[in-house]
Amino acid sequence: MTTLVSLWTDLRKRLEAAGVDTPVIDARLLLEAGAGVQRLDIVTDPRRSLSDAQVAAVEALALRRLDREPIGHILGRKAFWTLDLEVNADVLSPRPETELLVETALEILPKDKRARVLDLGVGSGAILLAILAERPFATGVGVDISDAALAVAKRNAEKLGFADRLELRSANWCEGLAHTFDLVVSNPPYIPTADIEGLEPEVARFEPRPALDGGADGLDAYRIIIAALPRLLAPYGAFAFEVGRGQADAVQALAQAGGLATETPRLDLAGIARVVAGRRAA
Question: How many Å apart are CA 193 and CA 209, to the nearest integer?
Answer without folding.
Answer: 10
